[in-house]
Amino acid sequence: MMLFKLEVFWVSLTLLVFFGGTLIYNRYKKPFFNPVLLSVVSLILFIKLTKADIEDFNQNTRVINFFLGPAVVALGYLLHKQWAEIAKNLLAILLSIATASLVGIISVVSVAYLMGADAILIATLAPKSVTTPIAIGIANKTGGIASLTAAIVIAVGVFGAVVGSWFLNLIKVENAFARGLAFGTAAHGIGTARAIDEGEINGTAAALAIGLTGVFTVLQLFIINFLFGNWSEIQHFLDRFFILAH
200 is in which domain, residue-wise? Predict the structure, then answer.
């Protein structure tokens, strides 16, 4: 259909689906009615049922992808408003996010390796905890599959937004700033949107965590690649490590 070749069609459809998801979420306030999750599922169903070409969707929604970067930068306004609170806890924030970033890399790489993933897939998964524009850049530099990295990052963000509040309540994390840092570190942009729903302090902490997680993850992956050379060498190191561990 010629309609599926039009940028205005796909952009309008995406925005309308998200708007509809937001209305549903605001009415029922249930985690599984997260607007991003509803939008993703709705668009996948639409593309499958109409047999539309996924490339038409990708090509004609690039303008939405472009605004990912500016949207993250715009979160700086929240940081400005809460700078006094951030300054008081800066050392603790830096240490916690640096540790969380490293744990995020080690955990996903180890699990992927144990499940038989090759070096390319490990490189694709490694930046799963940073926001999409940064993750794509990392994947391109480390030999991963950037398009798959983007999908994984979105899936991680949706999962974090859906179960994050429930999990934090389960382990009795009540401090607003701590909850926000958890959302931003583990679920990046989508998690930050969920944190903002909980309150301004939560949203500020999540916005700060997005940027710092990106910085620490890039630095840590750079150091890992510098020490080992490439992900194939890292895979060989893991082979030796797990052999010795047994």
Answer: 70-245
pLDDT in tens, 206-246: 888 988 998 999 898 888 877 776 667 777 777 776 665 55
Q: Give the pair of three-digit tokens for residue 147.
A: 């398009």
Q: Which residues have a Cβ under 8 Å from the Cβ of 90 and sit 6 or more positions away? A: none
Structure tokens at 87: 């300054």
Number of domains in the chain: 2
Q: Is the pTM of this model over 0.85?
A: no
- What's the rounded Cα separation, in Å, for the pair 94 and 56? 42
Residue type, 238: L
CA-closest candidate to residue 160, choices 19, 14, 36: 36
Each as own residue / partner, the long-range contacts of residues 84-90 (CB below 8 Å, 24 or more positions apart, any chain) are 85/177, 85/201, 85/204, 86/204, 86/208, 89/177
Q: 184 and 94 in one domain?
A: yes
Residues 74 and 50 in one domain: no
Q: What angle do CA 108, 212, 97 make, to 5 degrees?
A: 60
